[in-house]
Specification:
The protein is α/β, with parallel strands linked by helices. Helix content is about 25%, strand content about 15%. The protein is built from 16 helices and 18 strands. The protein has an eight-stranded parallel beta sheet with strand order 9-8-7-3-2-1-11-10. It has a five-stranded antiparallel beta sheet with strand order 12-13-14-18-16. Helix 12 runs parallel beside helix 15. The longest helix is centred in the middle third of the chain and has 17 residues. It binds 1-deoxynojirimycin and calcium ion (CA). The site of 1-deoxynojirimycin has 9 residues, from loops.
């Protein structure tokens, strides 16, 4: 069990930070983690079988929590992000009893369980939507956002109620013949937006939160939570000159980020806080740091995406960190993410040239520098399954994409194929990679015979063993888990360095983004102490004392403590 010096569950500042601040969260995409019945799709029993990888043994990664992407009944138009029953388990993933066993298994290892609530929209197959579309005056009539058409265009087509777009391409409005009205959807037509302004909807959705709290979950990831409320009058968004894609040609002033969200967040937190030690994290949908900042609250983090698109450059990461620190200030606690199920895998993103990608060595060296950054930067790190192996993107031609928006992509709607980051987890070099005995729903990574959990466990310099070492170091070093942060200026453009301080203890992190040696100046250690190296991706003697200047090896990441 991970050593946790922090009193659990307290949100009282005097009692210290909670696990959602000091801990590390590991995101699992259930379809792709481990399949136990040979249907090629991962399941809850598969996750339970592989908990040793995550926590509880000396060679586990040692994460503090898992976040499960949706496992609820779903017709899978958006692979689970279209929920047909918020309190059930889809039979393809198992049963509620399997879920309860999984929670028990995690808790027995000191791991928390965070689930993904998709409360902006449901599936069009949800019983609520079926009832809503069936009657304009039944009990569910106002559970979704329905409007009449304001008339016909010159071509005879029905005009939509306003100019809002769907993030997944096309208009945000779909005509429903049964009801004779348009309904609104921020994503696919099969994902109608719920009407959060209706008190009955609010009560039902907060009831979902209560149900899962009673079932013992420790937190919630709230899908696109800043879109729950739309402008009450549904005004059209102002136009603007955009980039590629019609989505960017409007200011999204009225289809998200409405002031009512803060009051909802307060009510949600009151419910969550009735169960000590629970947290939430909201996914900011297409928003700015200024929009994210006020939404960060005690026990509630926000994914602001500062780091997830930064290219491989010390200067670019420095700018991203400085900019966020300036907006968030010293009080707000950030969430740090390099990869997730919506974005390219960062081992590919950060090593984009063919030469680097082809070089397993350089690609992995970058992945190890990135891991050091992610696990030593101030904030809660969220890992995405497989990143601890340095997994690269799958190459899947657009014509074969399963990701629904990728299938709708066109000139006015450019989209990347999210399948590339959602492939099976390779556990070993056997056929099926230890993921499945059947045909996997997405292809196995082409290098799975070398890049898998078993092979990397046996290699001291693997990406996996780098993650394990960094997680161990983090748990043993309060300055890394919770310390204040200060960037340290360097003359060399390829060096990124910062200091973390907790009381009179400190940590110094130095990252070399270049494939050549780079000098760095080392700041004074707190309280007149000496910096001693405790981690390096190069062949550096552990506990070496750092002088005032040192030279980092090519792509070396180094951590020293005082
Ligand atoms: C954000 C999720 O992360 C993404 O996977 C999903 O497609 C959209 N929300 C819609 O739910
Ligand atoms: Ca299965």
């Amino acid at each position: 069990m991970p050593a946790q010096a922090v009193p659990e569950g307290s949100r009282d500042a005097s009692a210290g930070p909670g696990w959602w601040q000091t801990g590390v969260v590991y995101q699992i995409y259930p379809r792709s983690f481990a399949d136990t019945n040979g249907d090629g799709v991962g399941d809850l029993a598969g996750i339970l079988e592989h908990l040793d990888h995550l926590a509880g043994r000396p060679d586990s990664l040692g994460v503090d929590a898992i976040w499960l992407s949706p496992f609820f009944p779903s017709p899978d138009f958006d692979f689970g992000y279209d929920v047909a029953d918020y309190v059930g388990v889809d039979p393809k993933y198992g049963s509620l009893a399997d879920f309860e066993r999984l929670v028990e298994g995690c808790h027995a290892r000191g791991m928390k369980v965070v689930i993904d609530l998709v409360l902006n929209h449901s599936s069009s197959q949800h019983a609520w939507f079926q009832a809503s579309r069936a009657s304009r005056d039944g009990p569910y009539a106002d559970w979704y956002i329905w409007r009449d058409s304001p008339g016909r265009s010159t071509t005879g087509a029905r005009r939509a109620p306003n100019n809002w777009r769907s993030f997944f391409g096309g208009p945000a409005w779909t005509w429903d013949e049964a009801r004779g009205q348009f309904y609104m959807h921020t994503f696919l037509p099969q994902q109608p937006d719920l009407n959060w302004r209706n008190p009955a909807v609010r009560e039902a959705l907060l009831g979902v939160v209560r149900t899962w709290l009673d079932r013992g979950v420790d937190g919630f990831r709230l899908d696109v939570f800043n879109t729950f409320f739309k402008d009450e009058r549904l005004r059209s968004n102002p136009r603007r000159v955009g980039r590629r894609g019609l989505w960017s040609w409007q200011h999204h002033r009225y289809d998200r980020n409405q002031p009512e969200l803060l009051d909802l967040l307060r009510e949600l937190r009151e419910i969550v806080d009735q169960h000590p030690g629970r947290m939430s994290v909201g996914e900011l949908f297409d928003g700015s740091l200024a929009e994210a900042a006020p939404l960060i609250q005690p026990g509630h983090l926000v994914f602001d995406w500062s780091l997830i698109q930064v290219p491989w450059s010390a200067a670019a990461f420095r700018r991203a960190i400085e900019t966020r620190d300036a907006v968030f200030g010293a009080e707000r606690w950030p969430a740090n993410v390099l990869s997730n199920h919506d974005q390219p895998r960062h081992a590919s993103r950060l090593a984009p040239t063919a030469a680097v990608a082809a070089s397993g060595y350089e690609g992995d060296a970058r992945a190890r520098v990135a891991a050091t950054l992610l696990l030593t930067l101030r904030g809660t790190p969220f890992l995405y399954y497989g990143e601890e192996l340095g997994l690269r993107n799958l190459r899947i031609p657009n014509a074969e994409a399963l990701d629904p928006p990728a299938r709708r992509a066109n000139v006015l709607f450019p989209w990347w194929n999210r399948d590339q980051a959602r492939g099976p987890m390779p556990w070993n070099a056997q056929p099926g990679a230890g993921f499945t005995s059947g045909r996997p729903w997405l292809p196995l990574p082409p290098d799975f015979a070398q890049r898998n959990v078993a092979a990397e466990s046996a290699d001291e310099r693997s990406v996996l063993n780098t993650y394990r070492a960094l997680l161990r170091l983090r748990r043993a070093t309060p300055a890394l888990e919770r310390g204040a942060q200060e960037l340290v200026a360097q003359d060399h453009p390829d060096a990124l360095t910062y200091r973390r301080t907790e009381g009179d203890a400190g940590a110094f992190v130095a990252l070399n983004f270049a494939s050549r040696r780079v000098p760095v100046s080392v700041p004074a250690a707190p309280a007149g102490r000496t910096w001693r190296v405790v981690f390096s991706t190069a062949d550096r003697a552990s506990s070496e004392a750092l002088p005032e200047t040192t030279t980092l090896g090519p792509l070396e990441a180094l951590v020293a403590i005082s």
